[in-house]
Write a structure and sequence with these properties.
With 259 residues, the chain is an alpha/beta fold. The chain contains 11 helices and 8 strands. The chain starts with 8 loop residues before the first strand and ends in a 9-residue tail after the last helix. α3 links the parallel β3 and β4. Bound molecules: 2-phosphoglycolic acid. 2-phosphoglycolic acid (PGA) binds next to β8.
């Protein structure tokens, strides 16, 4: 279902990839693509390239949303290597990923840490993209819904009011960077569960919140995901590192899969 609030969003998460020239080229390409599609386009570059990416997409008021890949819960202090939500906002970022699976599983961010980083993002005026998803072992053990519910509830608990912005990304860990995406049916089940869980707290938010799918999204499978009523876009890793693969994903239309 595409409502104005649920305009499809395609976001590129570059992770720790690309040099300065790559970043400029990918950002300039995203700027062109954003003019060719009715979808919203967002980029999450590594911190050192945020400034040049913001400039390359057209500065303040640009169509392309630029955000950080994570933020620390605290506004400032002795946290070597970390970046605060306020710094991202000060630079011109509009959004930030909270609890991406690599932050949870490689860097050990807990549900509590992720929730606090989300609270910091809201406080700084950023749109948090709360990432949730189960590991292969958790899915095999029948714990998908329990894990997703736990991660989701921790994030939802820090929303201050129905007006706080939120985007959710469902990214099963086993599908990230593996070339083994969820099937549209698996995505449909998880997304419906997430929307229902949000509805239990706030039916209005559930009707308007965008829930992105992430995990091995490619030009060849994006239509299948966007055909799922509860999928409102995609968070794209590997395929966002080449404008030739990112552009067709960013321009994909909701509900156009064959069969
Ligand atoms: P992938 O990564 O598209 O390379 O699977 C997705 C993500 O981690 O956001």
């Amino acid at each position: 279902m595409t409502t104005p609030e649920r305009r499809p969003l395609v976001a590129g998460n570059w992770k720790m990839n690309g040099g300065r020239a790559d970043a400029r080229g990918w950002a300039e390409a995203a700027r062109v693509v954003a003019d060719q599609t009715s979808n919203e386009v967002a980029l999450f570059p590594p911190y050192p390239w945020l400034g040049l990416v913001l400039e390359a997409v057209g500065g303040a008021g640009a169509k392309v949303v630029v955000g950080g890949q994570a933020c620390h819960p605290e506004p400032s202090g002795a946290f070597t290597g970390a970046v605060s939500a306020g710094m991202l906002a000060d630079l011109g970022c509009k959004s930030v990923l909270c609890g991406h699976s690599e932050r949870r599983h490689v860097f050990g961010e807990s549900d509590d840490f992720v929730a606090k980083s989300m609270a910091a993002a809201l406080e700084a005026g950023l749109v948090p993209v709360l990432c949730v998803g189960e590991t292969a072992e958790e899915r095999e053990a029948g714990q998908t819904e329990a894990v997703v519910a736990r991660q989701l509830d921790a994030g939802l608990a820090v929303l201050r009011s129905g007006d706080d912005p939120l985007i959710v990304a469902y990214e099963p860990v086993w599908a990230i960077g593996t070339g083994n995406p969820a099937t549209p049916k698996e995505a449909a089940e998880a997304h419906a569960f997430i929307r229902q869980r949000i509805a239990e707290r706030d039916p209005e938010r559930a009707a308007t919140v965008r829930i992105l799918y992430g995990g091995s999204v490619k030009p060849s499978n994006i239509d299948g995901f966007l055909a799922v009523p509860d999928v409102d876009g995609a968070l794209v890793g590997g395929a966002s590192l080449d404008p030739e693969t990112f552009a067709p994903i960013a321009c994909a239309k909701a509900g156009t899969a064959d069969g």
